[in-house]
Specification:
2 domains, 385 residues, 15 helices, 5-stranded mixed beta sheet, alpha+beta, YbaK protein, elongated, 3-stranded antiparallel beta sheet
Length: 385
């Protein structure tokens, strides 16, 4: 399936949110009378909140994810207070990373309640959301309790597989009623300024990496693709099934561009989560396999150190098929004619799932990197430029 011209990637959303935040902060600090800059800035928080929710469900280690948010919140507090309060410590107002940390803790609590008390997720989420809201209010974290609820709305809508309407309704309630706001006059009607944050749903809904559909038509297409994938199993898929490793098959147009970044875009995946397989020959004559993010380049010196060789060189393309059984553009670390020492770039472990080739151009598989590394007896190292 081709990519819509309006589809947005994770990077697109980040850049949009950062631009809106920059405009907002410049307006606050340098141009206090330019209210349009503050209006533009309302787009930033919901987009960041959505990405925090996405990160929570995509990370393979939620404990570390929550801890990183806490560390970033602590480290950022002094610069934040100096910029906005003129003092190194302002107990009356905390930076937005505290809001995100509180939300992660609330999601953790909801998961724990669901697991230990066998509660349905909605019942487990209610006390966690209430506690998160109150903690955000008590700490005076940026966007307060409603800010915590914003992240929770995105996270829970994701887990419950519901679409746009509940998100829209929740955003209208949070930004139009719960969140303290100055007023603006639009066409003679007085409205809360924070209500403009609802417009952030438009780029969020265009995010192509979003893992749940927004319409029955979209879901039917998805089911059709998955059924087709099931019929066209590759050797890689069969190997994963034999080893009882769960995976999600993906397809893209084999007649289109087959470079890694284009494939990631066609799949609607973040290029950082899609890995390409490179085969090298060491100075000793041994062969080594390296899997790195598709947008990155292999550092041959780092690669050599990772496998204990004096040097390694890329395998000529004409030798790839006889050696591995795979062609250029469809090379997978799984199911080669012979299993060679394999190294994944260390960032593979940052994600809950990664994509690798399914051994055939036009096909990819998405699975747990830990399971993949265990299957291949691989290791991880920093091997990119």
């Amino acid at each position: 399936m081709g990519k819509s011209r309006l589809d947005l990637s994770t990077l697109d959303l980040k850049l949009l949110a950062m631009a809106a935040m920059l405009v907002d902060h410049m307006g606050y600090l340098l141009f206090p009378t330019a209210m349009w800059m503050r209006y533009v800035g309302r787009l930033a928080f919901p987009i960041f909140a959505f990405q925090i929710a996405e990160g929570w469900y995509r990370t393979h280690d939620r404990e570390k994810y929550t801890l990183r948010l806490l560390i970033c919140a602590v480290v950022s507090e002094v610069p934040f207070d100096l910029a906005f309060s003129g003092t190194p410590v302002d107990a009356g107002y905390q930076n937005v990373l505290w809001t995100f940390f509180i939300t992660a803790a609330a999601l953790w609590a909801a998961d724990a309640l669901q697991e230990r008390l066998c509660l349905p997720l909605p019942l487990a989420a209610l006390p966690a959301a209430g506690a998160g809201y109150l903690l955000g209010e008590w700490m005076q974290a940026d966007y307060f309790g409603p800010g915590v609820l914003t992240v929770l709305v995105f996270a829970l809508c994701r887990q419950w597989h519901i679409g746009r309407l509940p998100e829209l309704a929740a955003m209208l309630v949070i930004n139009g009623w719960l969140l303290p706001s100055a007023d603006m006059t639009l066409w003679g009607v007085t409205l809360p300024v924070e209500l403009l944050a609802t417009a952030a749903l438009l780029p969020i809904w265009l995010y192509r990496g979003r893992p749940w559909p927004h319409s029955p038509e979209h879901w039917n297409i998805r089911r059709h693709i998955m059924a087709k994938n099931k019929e066209e199993k590759t050797n890689v898929m069969r190997t994963l099934e034999q080893k009882k490793i769960p995976y999600t098959p993906h397809t893209y147009d084999p007649n289109g561009p087959i470079d890694g970044v284009s494939v990631a875009q066609a799949l609607g995946q973040d290029p950082a989560c899609v890995f390409k397989t490179l085969v090298t020959r060491g100075a000793s004559g041994g062969y080594y396999v390296f899997d790195i993010p598709v947008a990155e380049n292999l550092d041959l010196k780092k690669a050599a150190r990772a496998v204990g060789e004096k040097s390694v060189a890329m395998l000529p393309q004409k030798e790839l098929l006889p050696l591995t059984g795979y062609v250029h553009g469809g090379c997978s670390p799984v199911g080669m004619k012979k299993q060679f020492p394999t190294v994944f770039h260390e960032t593979a472990l940052l994600y809950g799932t990664i994509c690798v080739s399914a051994g055939k151009i036009g096909h990819q598989v998405e699975c747990d990197p830990n399971a993949l590394i265990t299957l291949l007896r691989a290791k991880t190292a920093d091997v990119i430029v």
